[in-house]
Amino acid sequence: DYLSGARAQRLGNDPVALATSLRRATTGRMTPLHDLLDHCTMPIGLVVGGDDTKFIGIAETLARRLPDAVVHTVEAAGHAAHLEDPAAVAEAIRHTIGRA
């Protein structure tokens, strides 16, 4: 299945290159843009896996700051919800586009 293929592909990555990428480009090193959220006027869909507790909290916090945001939780999915349940993620995207 697709998830197994994605996992196999990830296992084939160069661990040194991945570590370098993580050290240089992780979200913890990026400039926070939260203050720009107040300027968003379009519908926004925040998609998170139901097992990804860290990002569920982040999505809920962001949704409180955005005037027209909806959190879409993909049950039985983790951080890679787009790989674990692509149909549910596609539905969340369709829902958000339909609100535009």
Tell me what the structure shows.
This protein has 100 residues and is of the alpha+beta class. 52% of the residues lie in helices and 12% in strands. The protein is built from 5 helices and 2 strands; from the N terminus they run ααβαβαα. It starts with a helix and ends with a helix. The model has no long low-confidence stretch (mean pLDDT 91).
Give me the secondary-structure topology.
Layout: H1 2-11, H2 15-25, E1 44-49, H3 53-65, E2 69-74, H4 81-84, H5 86-99
Parallel strand pairs: 1-2
Features:
Rossmann fold, 12% strand, alpha+beta, 100 residues
Summarize the structure.
With 100 residues, this protein is of the alpha+beta class.
Average pLDDT across residues? Answer: 91
CATH architecture: 3-Layer(aba) Sandwich
Shape: globular
Q: What spatial order of strands do you see in the largest sheet? A: 1-2
